[in-house]
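Fold it.
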Amino acid sequence: MFAKTIILLFASSLLTCALSSDVAAQRVELRARLVRAGAEPVASGNARYEQRSDRIRFSAEAEDLRTTTRINVFVNRAFVGSAATNAFGTADLNLDSRDGQKVPRMADGDTVTVFDQNGALILRGVLRSRRIGGRSGN
């Protein structure tokens, strides 16, 4: 009986480890620093993408916008979404598949570009893997 219990505990431990590494392997986290590329002289921003087994999220933020009233965000030339600029010169686009929003899959090296309401380029950056728990995130 004792031997069976030890074997079951060992098997359970192996299964738990396998599931944990599988979930970690499914997690992707990418970040981009968005740098000024034209229309807004002091603008800056960042973008973040997170993919887990149960959800996908993407956010893009533009700051220090002086004349822009709305940002339009693209990833690899494909439109992702838009957001209005607030009174402080900041615009935030937040997409989450758990909220029923469509979030395209992204990968290391994808390009994020932000345009103003007139189509002028404001910011650009490249999504890069973020290290998670001592391992690469993708």
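Confidence is low (pLDDT under 50) at residues 14-23, 133-138.
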